[in-house]
Amino acid sequence: MNHYIVFVKKELLEYARTYKLLVMTVVFVIFGITNPLIAKLTPELISSFVPEGMTITIPEPSALDAWAQFFKNSQQVGLIVLVLVFSGVLSSEVAKGTLINLLTKGLSRQAVILAKYSAMALVWSWSVVISALLTWVYTVYLFPVDPLSNLVFSIFCLWLFGGFLLAVLLLGATLVRSNYGSLLVTGAGVLILTVLNVIPQAGKYNPTALVTKSMDLVAGTIGLPPLYASLGITAAATLALIGLAVLVFSKKQL
Amino acid sequence: MSILEIQDLQLRFGDNQVLNGLNMTVPEHAVFGFVGRNGAGKTTTMRIVLGLLKAQGGTVTVCGERVRYGAAKTNRHIGFLPDVPEFYGYMRPLEYLKLCGEIAGLPPQSIRRKSEELLELVGLDAANRRISGFSRGMKQRLGIAQALLNEPRLLICDEPTSALDPIGRKQVLDILSAIRGQTTVVFSTHILSDVERICDRIAVLEQGRLVLSGTLAEIQKQHRRNSFSIRFAEDHEARKFSQLEELNKPGIELSLQDQVLTIVIEGEAAAGRLLIDLLSREKIAPEKFEAIEPTLESLFAEVVQ
Fold first, then answer.
1. So what's the pLDDT on residue A51?
2. ipTM of this predicted structure
3. CA distance B287 to B230
């Protein structure tokens, strides 16, 4: 337990001083501020390009459009940035040998994996929260109050999916030695999950449902129950992946 | 009592028998030079002692406790300096030592006190900046500080001087000399002058076994081959002496070069006296009379052939 706390602190210091935290914060703050702005300005931009005499009816932008931007940005660029920033989090330490020194002092390998996961998850949580808060503030400021449903739940789903990806990334890092190994494993994992969606019945169990159904949730076209299966499976898979990463790393010759 | 005991250690990587029945004992308070060619298995041995690598046979005991692969409880007795120590470049020396101390489970106050002491010992007390800007020598010295943090009974250094410039080497050797008496030091190297300077015991590893071990004086005594060199003042004295009947018999090798005669006498314990007697009988006062000590280098070359 003591090693775990010591190592979480070390990881957070590392993220702060090696700009990982800064990159994540900047990206998600920019998203937070621009999500509502883009939603607000898009119709005006389009109408300024439309030639005179032609009329197209563009629906008045709403808070729903701002949140659509939020989910689109977080799920595409946001998750990619997350995975890229943390791709070398274990492999670079193993390759450089910085970890060996601490392991010979009795640092438990289990603590290393758990602390690394926790610290990454903490940064991810911070990024999601700051981005969502900023989006919320600007949306309230720019748009009339819209009835939005399940917003918090939908953001929670996004957060959980990010946590799941981090677990895949970490397991990848224990399996493959190079920095790119963990990226490759994560990419392959997402690809497989996406392909699995081809099977009609697989969709509702698939973790990807957590990020593909976001706007349906917020618009209120679906309720929470259809996502319960996927939610449970993703949470269980995340825990299993972390457990597996601990096992693999304990047996690894360094 | 011996701090480190290695018995019949076996390790094979594929077809390559790296360690083949290695036996080695390091007594307490020794400065132990572990010598061998590149690739002789020095680093491998150290990694087994640290529990980082699994041996296929044999036992390793540190302070009376057996070393087990993976869960190396014995590491609490050991401080380790890897050959090229790597630290977190974004930390400052004190921060790094704090991290090490917390992992080793030392109380916070003693971490602080001990860190400052050690940084002073290794001459880094003024270097309060990030480790990424450190030279190799500075990293090596920080490596010694972190290895000594938990006051280990055994300090293991893997080629601590190989990559350093002469000044850096001298600094590291001075530090290792300075801690003599407080802790037992085992260090591997292939730089023999370093060994001669600070070690009191050496062991030479070759083909997975020790081919030479003991205190430096013992080894030199064992391998002294009654060799002498005599420099004469005059050419004719040299010629006359080298033609003496007593010296021209089997078992004695002579070689005369200018006025220097080198004599190797096999198996004769009183060889030196014999030569002096002859000199005095012939009434020759040489300019120089010397018993040739084997150099560590010649011994090393001899045993690793």
1. 77
2. 0.86
3. 8
